Amino acid sequence: MLGTKLRRLIFSASAAAFTMIYSSAHAASTISIGVDPTFANALTDIVGAFQNYYVVNGNLTYNVVLTIDSSPNLESNIVNGGSSPPYDLFLSSNGLAPLDLFANHNSLVVGNPFPYAKDSLMLYSTLVDISAGLPTSLTQPFVIPDPTQDVFGLSAAEVLATTPGALYAQSHGYIQTRPDVGTTFAAADGGFFQYGFVAKSQICQYYGSAEHYVDGTYHHEYLYNDWRHPYLPIVLIGTKLARTRAADVETELTNFVNFLTGVGATAGTDVIKQYCYKTP
Hints:
This protein is of the alpha/beta class. Helices cover about 35% and strands about 25% of the residues. It is built from 10 helices and 13 strands. The strands form 4 sheets. A 6-stranded mixed sheet has the order 1-3-2-4-13-5. A 3-stranded antiparallel sheet has the order 9-6-12. A two-stranded parallel ribbon has the order 7-8. Strand 10 and strand 11 form a beta hairpin. The protein starts with a helix and ends in a 6-residue tail after the last helix. It comes from Methylocapsa polymorpha.
């Protein structure tokens, strides 16, 4: 399980892409995964569990290369790659990019997009107690992800649309935006704003049959199916890409997708749940 310090380091990073390589001396094959930063921490742990599982169950040593970047950037890389996408697998923070690829660039994908996790919208603060939710009167600056760029920002906008005082707050400049949920978390966690809307997976760890949060912080979960503040479910979607692969690489990719989605073993979905995601 990743510690809070490392988790904050990754989610405070800019949207610039970076690559992580997991390898061993006698690797059977290598797959490449493009992943949104929202899921990068969990995926790092899943890769380790995946490699350990197949060393023990099959004596196979697998390599995995992760490229961590925003979902729009990853989709752009895939489209610009033409008939040779740069990744074997694309794990998005929502369904927009994978569904767009499926609908408008179908020759670049293999099969249907598939859900692999569900996240939730959280109000978060290191400064004030917002455990009861948004204040009735919104008169202090707070931060949300840009609704035009980030699914968590869109969900936050849907919640605000049913919140008294939100129109007043917007007209007086109290509602500030950051490009994505990663930079929004950094702004709220750093105390630059009184509170902000973030992803539950950024602030929560599940172990010992309970959810755990950093001491001294405050949070309030907004459930998508709460009739008082409904929003569209935040479903993380993946898709296989039509990249030329050797037979052993294809086998590794199939094994990884099965591991991620809980087919044949639960070790992958167990890690997903540790980050307070729900499984589809």
